[in-house]
Amino acid sequence: MQRLKNPPRAIRRGLIAASCALLGVARGKSQELPDAAGYVDHGSGSNHWVIDSALSYYQEKGRIRVIEPIVSAVKDFQNGQVLNLQFVVDSLTGATPTGAVTSFLPQVWTNASKAAHSYTTAPGTLPVDPFYHDVRVAASGSWRLPLSRVMSWTVGAKASYESDFLSLTGSASIARDFNQDNTTLSFGVYDENDTIRPIGGVPLPGSDTSFALRERVGHQSRNDVGALLGLTQIMNRHWLVQMNLSLDRAAGYLNDPYKILSVVDPAGVTTGYLNERRPSQRTRASVYVDNRVGWQRQSVNLALRYFGDDWGIRSYTARIRYRWYNSTQTAYWQPSVRWYRQTAANFYRPWVALSAVGQFTYQSADSRLGAFHALTYGLEYGIDIGTPYVHPKWLTVRIQYYRQVVDDRTPGPGQLATLDLYPGLSAIQAQVSYKF
Question: Which of 30, 32, 36, 361 has the lowest tally of Cβ within 10 angstroms?
Answer without folding.
Answer: 361
